[in-house]
Structures are given as C-alpha cells and as structure tokens.
Design goal:
This protein has 18 residues and is mainly α. The chain has 1 helix and no strands. It has one helix at residues 5-17. The longest helix has 13 residues, at 5-17. It starts with a helix and ends with a helix.
Length: 18
C-alpha cells in the first residue's frame, strides 16, 4: 500500500477495463 503503487495500479486498471 504505497503512494507510488497507486498510479502504477491505475495504468494496469485502464487496460483491464478496456
């Protein structure tokens, strides 16, 4: 649970949602 993990997770969720 890191702040740097948040943005990286968002990029992984974007392609997953597509």
């Amino acid at each position: 649970e890191s702040e740097e993990d948040e943005p990286k997770n968002e990029k992984y969720v974007l392609p997953l949602k597509l």
